[in-house]
Design a protein that fits this description.
It is a single chain. By secondary structure, the chain is α+β, with helices and mostly antiparallel strands. It folds into two domains: 273 residues, L-amino peptidase D-ALA esterase/amidase; 123 residues, ArgJ beta chain, C-terminal domain (Ubiquitin-like (UB roll), Roll), CATH 3.10.20. The chain contains eleven helices and 15 strands. It is globular. This is Arginine biosynthesis bifunctional protein ArgJ.
Length: 408
């Protein structure tokens, strides 16, 4: 696998763009389109929130019931959540318009929205926006960047990743983009993610791989403990690389495909966590030597979501008691008197707890390590060989300011 520059236009046959249509009433881009010249096998995962947006309902139907998908229309600024029958009808109208413009069936068009909950989409300008988007579609990396910019809300940076890999002698490319900064929590953390590849693969195999990988990537990030109404990750595979089709986990090239998808999802997840609202630091938590994977996940999530621990990371304070405390209320069974805790960053590594009590560590050295980004906390529970990693960010003054002013 080779890491390359790019996003959703990195793979063969995919075009994209992003523009401002006026949803946000300013000059920021707020509408994007991704299009494949050929039909795509499609997989998706969605929010577990019982209050889910109209585009989530629409996309579930397309992913689960349509033979293929070929385009995605995305807007930022309005979530189209809690909008009733009108919201779903608006998804249908957008899909119909995109299908007409692109000469594809409406049920091959996926719809995604992000922004303020409870408002109806401004359909007049969005329907016109679809016509404009179609005319601007391009396959250059810069076209993918325009799309990545258009899906941002409180994000401060575009989030993209891309790789190439080999399948039985055939070069395959995979790229993706995502958005997410606030209202981020496990079980489909608040986000939109779109991954494109020219791989030829059977739909059921793609879906199974995506569902498994989500559990270790996007479901292992948290910024603020809020799970959204719109969380969606979609993968479109158009087969234009020309590889022998991957039809099972035993197919040649499946391992390389899985590793590529895992890398893309991991990188995008980390970009979301590191760009948490108001964040100054990506906070990574590794739990090692756990009795099983589930125990490691529970413990790492509990630490990364602890508001007190996140505040300590912001203050560059090696307040390890908050980490041990968060482990203690996680519901996971472990012996706190056997736990070792380390902090690690580009400035070095320091052991601050051994067997549940503080070591004779230097506060100055710990502060130096905690002043970098990313910062990693490692908790060794000495119970087995399992491990898990969770990602989050520090909790800063700006988080409150951003969310207090979100609609104003």
């Amino acid at each position: 696998m080779e890491i390359i520059n790019g996003g959703v236009t990195a793979a063969k046959g995919f075009l994209a763009t992003g523009i401002n249509v006026g949803i946000k009433n300013n000059v920021k881009k707020d509408m994007a389109m991704v299009f494949s010249r050929t039909a795509c096998v499609t997989a998706g995962t969605f929010t577990t929130n019982k209050v889910y947006a109209a585009p989530v309902k629409w996309d579930r139907s397309v992913v689960y019931n349509s033979e293929y998908a070929q385009a995605v229309v995305i807007n930022s600024g309005v979530a189209n959540a809690c909008t009733g029958e009108e919201g779903l009808n608006n998804c249908k109208a957008l899909a119909a318009k995109a299908g007409q413009e692109l000469s594809i069936p409406a049920d091959s068009v996926l719809i995604a929205s992000t922004g303020v909950i409870g408002k109806q989409l401004p359909m007049d300008i969005m329907l016109g926006g679809i016509s404009r988007l179609k005319g601007l579609l391009g396959e250059e990396l810069t076209d993918g960047e325009l799309a990545a910019e258009a899906i941002m809300t409180t994000d401060t940076v575009k989030k993209q990743a891309a790789v190439t890999f080999d399948v039985a002698g055939t070069k395959v490319t995979m790229g993706g983009m995502c958005k997410g900064s606030g209202m981020i929590h496990p079980n489909m953390a608040t986000m939109l993610g779109f991954i494109t590849t020219d791989l030829k693969i059977e739909k059921s195999v793609l879906q199974k791989a995506l569902s498994a990988i989500i559990a270790d990537t996007f479901n292992m990030i948290s910024v603020d403990g809020d799970t959204s109404t719109n969380d969606t990750v979609l993968v479109l595979a158009n087969g234009e690389a020309g590889n022998a089709e991957i039809t099972s986990e035993n197919s040649e090239g499946y391992k390389e495909f899985y590793e590529a998808l895992l890398y893309i999802c991991t990188e995008l997840a980390k970009k979301i966590a590191g760009d948490g609202e108001g964040a100054t630091c990506l906070f990574e938590v590794k739990v090692i030597n756990a009795s099983d994977k589930e125990q490691a996940k529970i413990l790492s999530k509990s630490i990364v979501t602890s508001s007190l621990t996140k505040a300590a990371i912001f203050g560059h304070d090696a307040n390890w008691g908050r980490i041990l405390c968060a482990m203690g209320y996680s519901s996971a069974d472990f012996d706190p008197e056997k736990v070792d805790i380390y902090f690690e960053s580009s400035a070095g590594r320091i052991k601050i707890v051994e067997n549940g009590t503080a070591t004779d560590y230097s506060e100055d050295e710990a502060t130096k390590i905690l002043s970098q980004s990313p910062v990693t906390a490692i908790a060794d529970v000495k119970m087995g060989n399992a491990a898990a990693t969770a990602w989050g960010c520090d909790l800063t003054f700006d988080y409150v300011k951003i969310n207090a002013d979100y609609r104003s």
